[in-house]
Every structure is written in C-alpha cells, then in structure tokens.
C-alpha cells in the first residue's frame, strides 16, 4: 500500500480542518456573522470529506477481510479505478488472492494425488472421531478387508457385527499385531496397527489393516515346496545307493541259495555291503535329526550371564581341539563387568559353530589365529565378534551362507549358520558377517 500518499492526503485534510476551525474561532471573536456561517459550512464539509476518505479505505479492507473470513478468494478488485492509494490496495489484495488460489490448487492436487495413492494400495486405512465415531476418511481396501459397505459412522459396524467392532475399533494396537477375524464362513489373518492424533480440540484414531492371509498361505506354500525339494534331494541321495546295494546283495544271496556251488558269497563282501547300508542309513537319520534341530528352537531360557565366564567355558571346551590343529585362539573382553541376558546353551552353540567354521577356514593358512572378542558398539549394544585370518568367504556364496542346507563344504550339512541366525533372532539380535578372500572373516553377534 502507498502509505506516503495516503498519510499526506490524510494530513492535508486534517490541516485544512484545523485552519478552518481556527478561522471559525477568529470570526466568532470578531463577530462576523457571514464568515461564521461560511467557516461552519466549510468545517462541516471538511469533516464529511475526511470521514468519507477514511471510511472508503476501511470499507475496502473490511470487504477483503470478510472474503478471507469466508474463504472466498475468487473476489477480484478493480485495479484501474479510484484513487491511486485505493488502486494500490486493490493490487495488493488481488496478489494475495492469486497466491492463496495457487496454494489451494497445489494443496488440492496433492490431496487428490495422495487420495488416489491410498485408494490404490491394498492396505485398509480408516480415520474416525474417537468421541462421535464419525468417519473422517476411509479407503476402499478397508471396506473390502472387513467385507462392509460404505459407512459414515463406526456405530454402523457395531450394530451389525459386535465381535468385529470390538476387535478392530475397541482394541488398541500401538505395535503391528496379527489377529484373526471372522468374515462370512471363514477366518482370515490380518495385520493391524493404530495411532491417535488430534486436530484442534478433537481426537481421532487412525487404523491400518493388511490382509496377510494370502501372503502367509503363499509363503507357507513356498516354504513347503523348498522343504520338500531339500528333503527329497537329501533322502534320494541316501536311499538310492542303499536301495541299489540292497538289491545287489539280495540278488547275490538269491543266486547263492539256488546254486551254492556256482555262486559263492564272500562273508567279507557281505559284511562290507551291510556296513555301507548301515552307514548310509545312519547318515539319513543324522540328516533328519539335524533338520529337527533347526526347527525345534522356539523359546529361550534367559538368565544374566557374565561374558567373561561364558568365554572361559567356551575356551575350556574348544581350545584342545583348536590347538591340536596348531591354530592360536584368543578370548578377550573389554570389561569384566560386561554381561548379557541370554540362553547360555544356545549362545554357546552359536559360538561353537562359529569357532569350528573359523578353524576350518584356517586349516591351510600360515600362522592361523582365531580371536573371540566382546565389547560395546557406539549404540551401547553388546557385540561378540569371532575373527579369523583364514581363507575368507567367496563373494558369490556370501548371500547364501545363512540359507538352510546351503554349504560349501563336502562334509557340511548347511545347518550351522542357519541355526545361529535363528538363535540370534530369538534373542532379538543380529548376526553379521564381513569377509575378504585371502584375509579372513569376522562374524558379529549384535545383542
């Protein structure tokens, strides 16, 4: 707004009013009747002009603020009519309206864009007023998951399906939680989480649902396929030679029974054949036992353990076999007070597996060494590391080392590292690996 022009015009009118007032006083003192009437008329005209001048500008501003109050930014003020300062005011108001219109268009476009995205996702979303139950927003996926038509208030669900209402709307799930809900003649698994937020004086609840029934079925099916594939492969590898050898022995014995003079049986050959069958059968039993060990670890017996004591037990157990291979092994703890809440037997099993792997990696290395170290990282998490200066892990198999039954060893079962990972997950921890061929490997247990 052109403040200088406006102030000058206002000051000029006020100056004229003061001069006329002084003139009126003077004429009254001099008792000049004619000039009294003229001065009085001029003062009245001056007051009306000043009032009109001020009122007109306030009326323009009031008009603009009224439009703002009712969110009417489509109003256009004439910029080519009226006094210069009024036109300047109109230009400013129009610029404000244009800016707000552009912001509204962008916000509306973003809202539509976000709404379309939320409509397209297969995750159900609903937000509603906690007090009144009025639905603030809901996408189609939510209605499809709970198998309900569109509704404006959650009481609609309460009247028709009380159990579903209690499960979804009356239960608080701060963390994602898997629940089962009944729909028609079946029950489905859904993942549910919610949060509460406030807008002005109203509180709202946001609920997110995801149908995981199909995903679980698909994952379960894939898991069974992989399991059957692995089991079939391993069992066939054991049964095929057993069957072949048993068939050979059976034919040999049958020929000996029918023509003992022609087909003689060497007891030593028969013993070797039966011994081979026994060994392969034991191998098959060992495989089944090993697989069962991978799946049976489902709960923990936690207790607080001093890491130094844990290392002493492992060192007593492992040192003889490690040192017999001329491999140096060293245990170190940064602080003697360092402790963990763990299942001792399971973590011992993890460390034994990692140390045995490190031993195998160091077989053909000069000055082989294994270091088992406990410390705390920058996040105050306790970390146990198993270092070795062995051959390292090739990059091409690095991604598969934790896959069940994957092994790069001719005599390995492929279960050890998978079991280690499962045990660490049960402890809500992680197992990390960093390796470089020709330099060595470090496995980190992060608690």
From TrEMBL:
Any single GO BP term: phosphorelay signal transduction system
GO MF term list: ATP binding; protein histidine kinase activity
Enzyme class: transferase
Pfam families hit by this protein: HATPase_c
Parts of the chain that traverse the membrane: 12-29, 35-54
EC number: 2.7.13.3
UniProt cross-references to PANTHER family, sorted A to Z: C4-DICARBOXYLATE TRANSPORT SENSOR PROTEIN DCTB, SENSOR HISTIDINE KINASE
Name of this protein: histidine kinase
Organism: Polaribacter porphyrae
């Amino acid at each position: 707004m052109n403040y200088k022009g406006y102030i000058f015009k206002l000051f000029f009118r006020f100056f004229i009013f003061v001069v006329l007032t002084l003139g009126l006083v003077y004429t009254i003192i001099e008792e000049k009747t004619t000039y009294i009437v003229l001065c009085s008329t001029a003062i009245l005209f001056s007051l009306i002009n000043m009032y009109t001048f001020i009122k007109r500008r306030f009326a323009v501003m009031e008009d603009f603020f009224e439009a703002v109050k009712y969110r009417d930014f489509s109003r256009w003020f004439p910029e080519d009519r009226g006094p210069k300062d009024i036109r300047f005011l109109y230009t400013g108001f129009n610029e404000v309206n244009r800016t707000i219109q552009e912001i509204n268009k962008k916000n509306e476009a973003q809202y539509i864009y976000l709404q379309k995205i939320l409509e397209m996702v297969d995750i159900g979303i609903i937000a509603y007023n906690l007090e009144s139950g009025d639905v603030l927003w809901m996408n189609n996926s939510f209605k499809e998951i709970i198998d309900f038509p569109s509704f404006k208030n959650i009481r609609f669900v309460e009247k028709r399906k009380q159990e579903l209402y209690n499960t979804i709307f009356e239960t608080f799930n701060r963390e994602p939680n898997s629940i089962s809900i009944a729909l028609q003649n079946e029950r489905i698994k859904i993942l549910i989480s919610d949060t509460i937020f406030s807008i002005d004086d109203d509180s709202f609840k946001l609920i997110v649902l995801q149908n995981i029934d199909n995903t679980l079925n698909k994952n379960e099916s894939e898991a069974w396929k992989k399991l059957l594939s692995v089991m079939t492969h391993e069992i066939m590898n054991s049964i095929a030679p057993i069957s072949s050898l048993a068939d050979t022995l059976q034919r040999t014995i049958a020929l000996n029974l029918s023509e003992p003079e022609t087909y003689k049986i060497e007891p030593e050959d028969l013993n070797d054949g039966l011994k081979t069958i026994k060994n392969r059968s034991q191998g098959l039993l060992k495989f089944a036992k090993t697989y069962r060990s991978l799946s049976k670890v489902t709960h923990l017996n936690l207790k607080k353990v001093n890491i130094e004591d844990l290392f002493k037990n492992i060192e007593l157990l492992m040192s003889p076999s490690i040192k017999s291979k001329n491999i140096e092994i060293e245990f170190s703890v940064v602080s003697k007070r360092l402790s963990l809440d763990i299942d001792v037997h399971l973590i011992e099993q993890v460390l034994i597996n990692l140390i045995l792997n490190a031993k195998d990696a160091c077989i053909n290395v000069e000055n082989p060494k294994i270091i088992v170290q406990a410390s705390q990282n920058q996040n105050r998490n306790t970390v146990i590391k198993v270092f070795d200066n062995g051959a390292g892990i090739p990059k091409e198999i690095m991604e598969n080392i934790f896959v069940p039954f994957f092994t790069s060893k001719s005599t390995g079962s492929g279960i050890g590292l998978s079991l280690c990972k499962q045990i660490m997950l049960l402890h809500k921890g992680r197992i990390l690996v960093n390796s470089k061929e020709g330099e060595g490997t470090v496995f980190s247990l992060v608690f």
